[in-house]
Amino acid sequence: MSSLLKNDSLDQLHEDLARANMAPTWKYVSEFVAREPRVSYRPWLWRWDDIIPLLMRAGDLITPERGAERRSMEHVNPDLTPYYSTSHSIATAFQLVRAGERAPAHRHMAGAIRFAARSQGGAVYTKVQGERLMMEENDLLLTPAHAWHEHANETPDDIIWLDALDFPLVNLLQASVFEPGEGEVCPSRPDNFSRQQLGMYRPTGWGKYPESQPALRYPWVEMHQALQDARSAEGSLFDGVILEYVNPINSGPTLPTLSCRAQLLKAGTKTKAHRSTSSTVYFVIGGEGVCVINGIEFHWGRGDVFVVPTWAWHEHHCKGSDAFLFSITDQPVLEVLGMMREQTYEPNDGHQKITSKFNP
């Protein structure tokens, strides 16, 4: 035994550890414990004018009769192509439902939200757990995890909405479940059931809300008014006037894994830069502006989508008229895990040095 130890070497130990499917922490610790977040993807922007013609072409080629479950196109970050995702934890897409079409019922473990990017209103809706949620332009609709949902457009006009799902996180946890629906998957509920059940007033005799997460519609007309009411407030140094869509059951985030916000950037706004361990995907409701991300200018306009990765410095500039942004962030996950961290950019009075402009 002593002769074996005498002739032993560190290289030999490493080889023997590898054969035993073990790894020496002293050799590899820097590969799995970092001083700050190691982010595997870059910021990116998808222009509405580039994407919508492709979606409309799909409207002619992909039809319910051809067996398509949904007609949607994912915003795929070029660094996350194998995962079909926008950030490491959030996937967004544009979905088109043409006049008179229906999308069949299904459910999945991934939680989802719909934000009506273009809608003429009328009888356009998502039915969640048997309740119709009507879809006016810029409305937010929730589809909680494992909730039955189907879509219908009973109007003469097409509708386009932004989908946002947490399936990258679900897939990382290896918890994905998908189930197609046949016939009436759950009993119908009256329109506005959730708002009546969860509001300050409800019909006498109604019991507790049946699910832990609500199937809700947040009308844009209400959020827009709330933002206007708050425009005289100082707002956030980093985001201007920003409001979160609140879960009325627990006063928490929109969904357990996703927080949705809307923000007003008043004309002339130039916010200060900061970064955090959460990632955020933005949809431009209206107006024009610039988001500077890690020194790169991302010029955005109505309908554009862009992503701010984890631990990326970012600030917003709005030089023209007022602008409105909708955003989805994975911050609730970081907060539950105790991993949410934020940092303020100190140099140059809080503003980054511009190094380039985004050019896909």
UniProtKB/TrEMBL annotation:
InterPro entries: Cupin_2 (IPR013096), GDO-like (IPR047183), RmlC-like_jellyroll (IPR014710), RmlC_Cupin_sf (IPR011051). Residues 95-163, 265-323 form the Cupin type-2 domain. Keywords: Dioxygenase, Oxidoreductase. It comes from the Bacteria. Gene3D superfamilies: Jelly Rolls (2.60.120.10). This is Cupin domain-containing protein.
